[in-house]
Design a protein that fits this description.
Blueprint lengths: L16 H18 L6 H12 L13 E4 L7 H10 L4 H4 L3 E5 L4 H10 L4 E7 L12 E5 L7 H13 L4 E5 L5 H17 L8 H9 L2 H16 L3 H9 L6 E8 L6 E8 L9
Parallel strand pairs: 1-2, 1-4, 2-3, 4-5
Antiparallel strand pairs: 5-7, 6-7
């Protein structure tokens, strides 16, 4: 199935922020309910170990150990942060801080997650372009279900920006270009009609745009199908890596089997001072 480059409605600058926040809240609820990204925890732990090994002891506890890009409504981080803390690597994991960022930050959702995580998850309040991450945001960069939004040249620019900053990066996509996984979008939209009253933070407007004027389900279905059709395969991401101007980075890409659908991933970090990467 050939990749297509088409627009997703919610990522357009003209799309109302109220509806965008409603959509990202729904996605975040689904990620936490189904825990679809739980299987990537070992990959994250290994990438964190590799990236931490290259910084000096006085730098290893800087606030932003993980900088999540294109966070939407915070994605899977509430669940992942708990798993990383409970099954991690000692003191390094116990001091782990996660910073959420987005070009159009959902600040209300970010604040809710910050409180729920007891401040282990923080957020950057301003707009953050994944191709031009501010220099004060340091740490392993991650992207969940968002890399496919970018056409090839912009996607490569995201990787190049991480390399230029000397930071590790991990990309994870539950979407996949296959008819079987596209069917998951329809199941998720149907579940939205059942679960909407339990999505937090609660918004009366979400009930309006789901039940009375079902714009949110329509956008979720449309953007979901487009997302699957835009997702890069591992080999396509490695081809981007081959075009990067990099000193000496370790890169690994593949598909991680899960009970829902394979998670496509790409992980890179400086090789010179990294530890052995454990898959």
């Amino acid at each position: 199935m050939r990749r297509i480059q088409f627009i997703e409605l919610h990522e357009q600058s003209w799309f109302p922020s109220l509806l965008r926040d409603g959509l990202t809240d729904a996605l975040q609820f689904g990620f936490n309910l189904c825990k679809v990204y739980a299987p990537v925890v070992p990959l994250l732990q290994s990438a964190l170990a590799a990236t931490r090994s290259r910084v000096s002891s006085d730098q290893s506890n800087h606030m932003h150990s993980i900088v999540d890009l294109c966070s939407g409504g915070s994605g899977p981080w509430l669940d992942l942060s708990r798993r990383l803390k409970s099954g991690g690597t000692g003191r390094e994991t116990s001091t782990l801080q996660i910073s959420l960022t987005d070009k159009y930050p959902n600040l209300r959702a970010f604040q809710t997650i910050k409180v729920a995580s007891e401040d282990h998850i923080t957020f950057y309040p301003g707009s953050v372009d994944a191709m031009k991450v501010p220099g004060d945001l340091k740490g392993l960069r991650t992207m969940f279900t968002s890399f496919h939004h970018f056409p090839p040249e912009e996607a490569r620019a995201i990787l190049q920006n991480a390399v230029d900053a000397g930071e590790g990066i991990g990309i994870f996509e539950i979407t996949r270009r296959a008819p079987s996984t596209i069917g998951l979008t329809f199941a998720f939209v149907l579940a939205l009609f059942v679960c909407t009253p339990w999505i937090r933070p609660f918004r009366w407007s979400r009930l309006l745009w789901t039940y009375l004027l079902p714009i949110l389900p329509f956008v979720l279905l449309f953007d979901g199908i487009v997302s699957f059709m835009r997702t890069y395969r591992p080999q396509e991401m490695l081809e981007m890596v081959d075009r990067l101007t990099a000193s000496d980075y370790h890169w690994d890409a593949g598909e991680l089997p899960t009970r829902f659908a394979p998670i496509t991933y790409l992980i890179g970090y400086p090789r010179a001072s990294s530890r052995e990467f454990m898959r």
